[in-house]
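agent> call fold_tool(seq_1)
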Amino acid sequence: MFLQIATEFATIGSMFSLSQPIRLAVQDKLAALRRLAKRNPMQKPFYIFGAGCQARCILNAALEAGYRPSAFLDDHPQASDLLGVPIFVAAGFPFEPGFRFVVGIGDCDRRREKFDLLVSKGGEPMTIIHPDSSVSRFSRIGAGTVVFAYALLDPCVRVDENCIVNAGAMIGHDAIVERDAHISAGARVGAGCHIGEASFLGIGAIINNGVTVGRSAFLAMGALVSHDVPPHFKAVSPHRKEAILTPIAG
């Protein structure tokens, strides 16, 4: 399976205009895929889309959870590999049906775009849960979601597909986190909260029990929120006081 992808990519690779360092490293990356194919001849390939900071953290979580990515895919790669894993140009990549993936992009809208694209190409989103997190057996984690180290999810929490629950985040019982949301490191989501689709909760944001955060809302770092946040609103807490809500431009 990997050998076929490597062979096809060697042919397709000439279609792209790559930087000199990347062009020189193509043979090394193809060799890496061939070595991986020999170790895992029956395993479906696993790709991380994106090759930036978020992707690097997801790589670490995946390895800790026992998953070895085959490669990173990126629209505009700036290097030939990331922490020893080869990077390929995403455009025109010869996917096989049933490949596994997770999206390593922090921006909610871009992550949703790439997630839907990869599903449309026959991909199967993987759920990655770091072994040092604490996820209740009574909670439900959607496909393509990544839960990082030291995150805590209480019983009866629902986290939908393609979400990020970052390191040290806490989600109280009976809370719902809709698809494509990003719960940043150290954020606190109270019991019974409802976090809307593609919402972003900044580092250390605190949401009181039962609060609803609307779709595509943005909660700044350290925001203190005890009232509902409408869709497409931003919440900022000057001097750690109750958040001030303003519409997001555009």
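agent> call fold_tool(seq_2)
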Amino acid sequence: MFDGQAFLGYLVNPFLLGGVGVTVGLTVVTMLIGLAIGLLVALGRMSPRRLVSLPCGFYVWVFRGTPLLVQLVIIYTALPQLGLRFGVLTSALLALSLNEGAYLSETIRGGFNGVAKGQREAATALGLSRWHVLRLILIPQVLRLIIPPLGNSLNGLLKATSLASIISMEELMRRSQLLMQQKFEVLELYTVAAVYYLALTTLWNLVQVRLEAYYGRGYGVPAKAKAPRGDTLEPIPGSSVRQA
């Protein structure tokens, strides 16, 4: 039977609250690294040089086509057999970032494709370097286009961090499992974990709405023409406008 008192106690449990902090930190760091990887891979996939575009395409194909859980296990347990040994935190960050970077690269590439080609040509004609075209012309417009899918990606990543528990990463889900092994209150602890995840995703949804509203605004709002007080606007010769 569900124990309501135990459920309320776990809601303010310091051990679980620490897991929430680890989950948030893991999400933020992974998203930042994933954005950097995604931008580089997106630019690589758009490169006319096959030596650059093909490896980037292969990377996206592998990490989008295999489960994140498998990637976590391979990086944590299989790479040490090749002489590459990582700790739990490093393995979790590496797997999550590589996986997220593959998905974000396609989102970012779609944003670049959504910018009219004529704008790049016009910027180049004005003498801007490739770096200035990217920084001043393309990225600000791409950012406006990809904010909604980026927000959805972060929402999914926040929940995907729970998979890191498989390699003993002590985030929210792993700490919940550790308490289950001690207290045998499985339903109560899973419900508390669900409440925490729901609270985090709800808070992020509120932030996402603000970001979408901010970046969705126009670049400028034309002001309405007003005549100075005491004056009247003269009619245009030949027009049908009559003075009052």
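agent> summarizing second result for user.
The chain has one domain: 12-117+135-215. Residues 37 and 101 are 5 Å apart (CA to CA).
agent> awaiting next instruction.
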